[in-house]
Amino acid sequence: MLNIVLFGPPGAGKGTQAEKLITKYNLAHLSTGDIFRTNIKGETKLGVLAKSYMDEGDLVPDEVTIKMLEAEVNKNPESTGFIFDGFPRTTTQAEALADFLKGKGTEITIMLALEVVEEELIKRLLSRGRDSGRADDQDENIITNRIKVYNEQTAVVADFYNAQNKFQKVDGVGSIDEIFDRLCSVIDTQQVSL
Ligand code: AMP
């Protein structure tokens, strides 16, 4: 299996690149943000809970997020691999994912971390907010809090994968195709060495 953690701050381009990667490598795309947004639209209990955190730019509690993610993986038993987009966002989530995948006889192959400077992130998020109507992309205070939460709680997750020699930085600035090519060349090199 090829299991990729696509990592990076909000606005780094994870969703855009994940869509291209799943086609090329025949993977299932699991975006926890997208799953929460679907639940919010469907007005489920999980959606109501998640919304209260997402509206502030805070993380949804680990327990709920981990349970939801595991259920989504279990919905794809035939998959030959996954792209985890927006998950794990805490070390607790990373540890839970490792245990869960181990139980299935697999593991994370690689974490690809898209690097983009903060100024560019804010510009991209505000532009996405205008185009998509995503509430958390329209308010600069919420955006600033999401970046702060990323720096304080999420960035450290890179250390977890770095300690296992699974961490790779990728320059996240350039055209969509340029960034995609950079990601593919890291994946292809990794696969050859497996
Ligand atoms: P995203 O679409 O990845 O930018 O996520 C949007 C929002 O969903 C985040 O700001 C969090 O409130 C919530 N969220 C998404 N993924 C996670 C996660 N792995 N852990 C906790 N909260 C999350």
What does this structure look like?
By secondary structure, the chain is α/β, with parallel strands linked by helices. It has a single domain (2-171), classed as 3-Layer(aba) Sandwich (Rossmann fold). The chain is built from 9 helices and 5 strands. The chain has helices at 14-25, 32-41, 45-54, 62-74, 91-103, 118-132, 140-154, 157-162, 176-193; strands spanning 2-7, 28-31, 81-85, 110-115, 167-171. A 5-stranded parallel sheet has the order 2-3-1-4-5, with helices on both faces. The termini are close together. Adenosine monophosphate is lined by residues 10, 32-33, 36, 53-54, 57-60, 65, 86-87, 89, 93, 146. Adenosine monophosphate binds next to α2 and α3.
Q: Nutshell version of this structure?
A:
It is built from nine helices and five strands. With 194 residues, the protein is α/β, with parallel strands linked by helices. The longest helix has 18 residues.
Write the layout of secondary structure elements.
Blueprint: E1 2-7, H1 14-25, E2 28-31, H2 32-41, H3 45-54, H4 62-74, E3 81-85, H5 91-103, E4 110-115, H6 118-132, H7 140-154, H8 157-162, E5 167-171, H9 176-193
Parallel strand pairs: 1-3, 1-4, 2-3, 4-5
Helix pairs in contact: 1-9, 2-3, 4-5, 6-7
The structure holds adenosine monophosphate (AMP).
